[in-house]
Amino acid sequence: MDATLLDAEAEAAVLRVYRQVFAVLAREAGAMIVDPELLDVDQAILDAFAEAGSDGMTVEQATQACRSFPHDLVVRRFEVLRQYGAITKLVDRPNELRHRAAFAPYVMLMFLRRMSVQGGQGELHQLLTLEAHSVSDPRATEDEGQASILRLTKVFRLLGNELAILVSTSTTAQLRENAQLAWGNERLIEQAEKVHRIVLERWPTLHRDCTQLRMALAAYADAVQLAAGRLVERAGTTRALGLLPIETWLSFTRGSDTEVLAGVLDGLLFDAAAPDFSPETMLEAVETGRRTGTARMAPPRPSAETEAPESAAATDREDLRAEAERVLAGRDSVSIVSVVDDAGDWVTARRVLAELTAAHLHDELDYELVWSDGMRIDPSAGTPWATEGSFRRVTR
After folding, report:
1. Using only C-alpha atoms, what is the Rg of the chain?
2. CB count, 10 Å around CB of 286?
3. Which of 48, 140, 192, 330 makes an SS bond possible with 65, Cβ 3.0 to 4.6 Å?
4. Model confidence over 248-280: pLDDT tens digits?
5. Residue among 350, 349, 361 at smallest CA distance from 268
6. Compositional bias (Low complexity) at which positions (predicted)?
7. Distance between CA 149 and CA 329 in Å, rounded?
8. How far apart, in Å, are the Cα atoms of 253 and each of 177, 246, 265, 278?
9. How many whole angstroms separate alpha carbon 43 and alpha carbon 81?
10. 345-to-147, 340, 381 alpha-carbon distances in Å
11. DSSP structure class, residue 243
12. C-alpha neighbours within 13 Å on the C-beta side of residue 322
């Protein structure tokens, strides 16, 4: 009976902390946040409690401290945090007005902010470091070593499974958005292998569990290679600048002069007729202008007797060639203003120009897109503003 009560008490303590931590994600008592502004409201409320000191705060004081947000919104979030145990009465008695806040929700907010910037890689590195210290402790037991190996096995299985699914079912844009899953993978695998070596040397009886970890690491490494291969293949033809990690861009901008920085965007198309679009949106339009659809895994390699199927890159090349020839219509050069006018509206013209830009950037196609400094302005045209230039064949 005592053991059962102790187990129930331990489970209740875990549930209590769990509710406090995830209170910052609850929109209402049983739902999840869908508006990022609510996270800012939660952080403002917890910031106010941190400044209030040991005297705590009332609801009215919290709304005054968070007056940059709507009053009703702060009151509602305050009540949600209170329902989940993240905010409790200063003294557990009826009619108590002052409250105190737990630290767990704020830690969760910090974790979420870091996850959004680093993609969880920093936390995973720290986890592996802690696991290595834990199993290296002379007081560590075999059960603790087994638990550590099982935790890491599940982590890398989930990572590998997620990447494998993204590679086989998602578009290149979706894969690029999750590219942080593949960053720093060599270092992650090295750290996990270090934990594996320590556990296997100290407790040889855990070799079966260690084998499962090695298999999970191998599957993760294979998934990373597949993901990197797809991203590199697409980046080579679309100049998808977003594939590079932010550290690379920071180093590049700090060590480059003005001409080199300007050269990065040479040949890229920007939507001058609708300047409200952000550069990121325009880059996405250039990358996805061909509408190739969802990419699929390559089939098994055929035997020597049969003709090998054409690759996705070759298909893209021929699609671009066909579009370029359609625009040229047997001519060696065509005016960009004519191309824009023939399209009729800017949405159609933007798609055509995106494909011409891709043909210009393709290493295996003999076409060139040249812009000049002039601009045609005609209010009666479908696209009133059109930059002058030409699309032409070139001899390499």
Report:
1. 29
2. 23
3. 48
4. 667 777 788 888 877 766 666 555 555 555 666
5. 361
6. 303-314
7. 64
8. 22, 11, 13, 20
9. 11
10. 62, 8, 9
11. G
12. 7
Global pTM value? 0.47
∠ CA 266-178-25, rounded to 5°: 125
Rounded-to-integer distance, Cα 287 and Cα 276, Å: 19
Model confidence pLDDT, tens digit, residues 215-254: 999 988 888 888 777 766 655 444 445 555 566 667 777 7
| Cα 186 to chain centroid, rounded | 19
| Tokens found for residue 129 | 């470091």
Task: Please spell the DSSP secondary structure of 31-81, one letter per residue.
Answer: -B---HHHHHHHHHHHHHHHHHGGG-B-HHHHHHHTTTS-HHHHHHHHHHH
| DSSP codes of every residue in 109-160 | HHHHHHHHHHTTHHHHHHHHHHHHHHHHSTT--HHHHHHHHHHHHHHHHHHH
CA dihedral 387, 389, 390, 394 (to 10 degrees): -130
Single-letter amino acid code for the residue at 127: L
- Contact between 350 and 285 under an 8 Å Cβ cutoff? The reply is yes
For residue 348, how many C-alpha atoms fall within 13 Å in the half-sphere facing its CB? 9
Q: Which two tokens stand for residue 265?
A: 């965007």
Closest C-alpha among 120, 242, 91 to residue 181 = 120
Q: For the residues of 322-389, what is the DSSP string, one character each?
A: HHHHHHHTT-SEEEHHHHHHHH-SHHHHHHHHHHHHHHHH-TT--EEEEEEEEEEE-TTSSSSEEEEE
Contact 117, 129 (CB under 8 A): no
Q: Among 318, 382, 311, which Cα is nearest to 355's? A: 318
In the Cβ-directed half-sphere of 222, how many Cα atoms lie within 13 Å?
Answer: 11
Torsion sign, CA atoms 179, 180, 186, 192:
negative
